[in-house]
TrEMBL record:
PROSITE patterns registered for this protein in UniProt: ABC_TRANSPORTER_1, ABC_TRANSPORTER_2
A Pfam family of this chain: ABC_tran
Protein name as annotated: ABC transporter-like protein
InterPro entries: AAA+_ATPase (IPR003593), ABC_transporter-like_ATP-bd (IPR003439), ABC_transporter-like_CS (IPR017871), ABC_transporter_ATP-bind (IPR050166), P-loop_NTPase (IPR027417)
Keyword Transport part of the UniProt annotation: yes
Organism of provenance: Halorubrum californiense DSM 19288
Keywords for this protein: ATP-binding, Nucleotide-binding, Transport
Ranges of residues in domain ABC transporter: 9-238
MF terms in GO: ATP binding; ATP hydrolysis activity
Highest taxon, organism lineage: Archaea
Length: 250
C-alpha cells in the first residue's frame, strides 16, 4: 500500500458461499484512500462476488469487510458506489433522471441543490447537452458514462466497477478508460475495478490484484509503479502485463 494511513477499504479473511458453491475463501485486501486497484482473474473465480460483498449487496459472508472504518453489512453503504457491466439504465427516463436514481434516498431529486449536483455529474462524465436524452439516443460509451455518473451520485469514498468497458469496441474503450482516469484524478475517489483485460488493468491501476482458484483467493498482487500519464506501449507496462498474464496462466 502506498501510504501508512488506515485503509479506506479493509477486507480480512473474506469467505462467501452460495449454497454448495464456495465462491471466495480467505480473501485479504487493503486499499488506501485514493488508490486505484484493478482485480483480474479467470471467469468464476469470484470477482463479481467480491464487489457485491464490498458494496453491501450480499448480506451473508464470513470474515470482515470495512469501508471507512465501518463494517459493511446488508443494505449497502453510502460510502460505496457501484457501476455494473451493463449500464442498467431505465429506458423511459432521461439522462438526468437516470443519474438522479443514484442520489441518496433522503435527497429530493427536484430540489435545486440536487439538480445542481446532477448537472455537475453530467459535466464530469462529459455528457453536457445530453441531460434530456433517453438511453435509446445514446451510444454504448455514453450509456456507460451515465452509469458512471449514477455510481458517483452518492459522492462515494469508494467506487466499484465490474467490467464496465467490456462491451465496448477498442477505441471507445480506450477513451472511456482515460475518462475514468480523469474522473479519478479530479475527485480523488478510491477505485476498485474488476476487469478481464490485463492491458486495461496495468494501464489504469496502481496495483493489480490477481484472484484465482476455485474457491477464489488472492494469488498475487502486482504493483504498477509507473508515472501517469502512461503510454500503453511502454516497455515496463508491457512487461507487467506479461507478468500478470503469466500468473493468470499458472
Ligand atoms: N447468486 C449465486 N448463486 C449461486 N452461485 C453463484 C451466485 N453468484 C455467483 N455464484 C458462483 O460463485 C462463483 C463466483 O462467481 P462470480 O460471479 O463472482 O465470478 P466472476 O469472477 O465474476 O466471473 P466472471 O468473470 O465470469 O464474471 C461461481 O462459481 C458462480 O457460479
Ligand atoms: Mg463477474
Amino acid at each position: 500500500m502506498s501510504s501508512g494511513a488506515d485503509p479506506v477499504l479493509a477486507v480480512d479473511d473474506l469467505r462467501k458461499r452460495y449454497d454448495d458453491t464456495v465462491a471466495l475463501d480467505g480473501v485479504d485486501l487493503a486499499v488506501a484512500d485514493g488508490e486505484f486497484v484493478a482485480v483480474v482473474g479467470p471467469s468464476g473465480c469470484g470477482k463479481s462476488t467480491l464487489l457485491r460483498v464490498l458494496s453491501g449487496l450480499e448480506a451473508e459472508f464470513g470474515g470482515r469487510v470495512a469501508v471507512d472504518g465501518t463494517d459493511v453489512c446488508d443494505g449497502g453503504s453510502d460510502a460505496v458506489g457501484m457501476v455494473f457491466q451493463e449500464p442498467r439504465l431505465l429506458d423511459w427516463a432521461d439522462v438526468r433522471e437516470n443519474i438522479a436514481v443514484g442520489l441518496p434516498a433522503d435527497v429530493d431529486p427536484d430540489a435545486p441543490a440536487a439538480r445542481e449536483r446532477v448537472d455537475d455529474l453530467i459535466e464530469t462524465v462529459g455528457l453536457g447537452g445530453f441531460a434530456d436524452s433517453h438511453p435509446d439516443e445514446l451510444s454504448g460509451g455514453m450509456a456507460q458514462r451515465v452509469s458512471l455518473a449514477r455510481g458517483l451520485a452518492y459522492n462515494p469514498s469508494v467506487l466499484l466497477l465490474d467490467e464496465p468497458f467490456s462491451a465496448l469496441d477498442r477505441l471507445t474503450k480506450a477513451d472511456q478508460q482515460d475518462h475514468l482516469l480523469d474522473v479519478w484524478e479530479a475527485r480523488g475517489t478510491t477505485v476498485v475495478l474488476v476487469t478481464h483485460d490485463v492491458e486495461e488493468a496495468v494501464y489504469l491501476a496502481d496495483r493489480v490484484v490477481v484472484l484465482g482458484g476455485q474457491p477464489g483467493t488472492v494469488e498475487s498482487v502486482v504493483d504498477v509503479d509507473i508515472d501517469r500519464p502512461r503510454e500503453r506501449a511502454d516497455t515496463e507496462l508491457v512487461a507487467l502485463r506479461r507478468e500478470v498474464t503469466a500468473v493468470l496462466g499458472r
